Automatic annotation (TrEMBL):
The chain crosses the membrane at residues 32-51, 63-81, 88-107, 113-131, 138-159, 165-186. The lineage of its organism: Bacteria, Bacillati, Actinomycetota, Actinomycetes, Micrococcales. InterPro entries: Diguanylate_Cyclase (IPR050469), GGDEF_dom (IPR000160), Nucleotide_cyclase (IPR029787), Rev_trsase/Diguanyl_cyclase (IPR043128). PANTHER family: DIGUANYLATE CYCLASE DGCM-RELATED, REGULATORY COMPONENTS OF SENSORY TRANSDUCTION SYSTEM. Residues 224-346 form the GGDEF domain. The keyword Transmembrane helix applies. The keyword Transmembrane applies. This is Diguanylate cyclase (GGDEF)-like protein. It holds the Pfam family GGDEF. CDD domains: GGDEF. It comes from Glutamicibacter mysorens.
Amino acid sequence: MPRTRNRRANDDGIWWSRLLPARLRRIKRLEVAVTGMVAAFLLVFYLVNLGNDFSSPLIQKLAVARVAGTLAMVITVWMLLDRFPLWIAYLGALAELSAFVAFVGFSVNHEQIVFRLQEFPLIALYMSWLFPPAVTRWTIYPVMAFTIPYSVFFGPAVGTEHQSGPLNVLSLVFFTVIGMFVGHYVKRRFRQQTQVDALTGALNRVGLSARGDAALLASRKHRKPLAVALLDMDGFKEINDQDGHDAGDRALKELVRHLRSSIRAGDLVCRLGGDEFVLVFPNTTMGQAQLLMERIEGSSKLAWSFGTAQARADDNLSTMILRADRDMYASKRQRAAERGKSAGES
């Protein structure tokens, strides 16, 4: 029986990943893995292309430069793994778009023109999956708006079968737009399914790791403070025991709605699990976070406790949350002591 379960687990995984070197299997960021695979494919393509005859020494030098560029991309992914910066991928996409403009608009190289026309919608899909919609639109649309009309009416390949006819032009535009739409949609759905808690709509642990780490890095880069707050609901177990789990679920949803309506733009609400939540406050000191949480708590219909912590030079999210957890339980003990003292006096 255990052997059957192991076989099923292997079948459910990405089977071809076992063909990769062990170092590359350590990549967890899908966008980095896709960038590495695309760069590796283009490297093979450009190496094969070096065997062709070139019309001029300049074209040959450009072909060598493309090999060097894709090789550098592959090596960078190999060296940095998940630390690979996406701005390098953007530069690589710009290089491919420049080749699209050069070959489709200003050459008569039939093989390259056909390849670039086929590649263009894939570049749009790739960029729309990796980068924000505005970045993709302002990159793809100007290139397409210039290159296609110029190549059809003025370029040296006017009248050839891949340049003439409205059907070819409409197909390129259609598949490019569809590719961008699909890329943005898949990106949103992927983030929603992997980074958002299905019950409450708050970020889950994966979302906290992705967006919280990015906020922490940004705070260090710009030398701005960052604070976190950890909270859990008071008496949540009693709600589940007395009124049922549906009532507990409603309480969690109500809490997240209240938190979201009370925090600022750019703040994060994340559910760790159960009734524990983490809030991330960029550009905020611990004192400011404390005041903000007290204000939110004062207007909440539900009872909960919280603790806060501010980022230090050697911190990560885990150490910050641990300090906030200690602060929360210290606050609970203090309130319990105060209630006991009041009861004794009465």
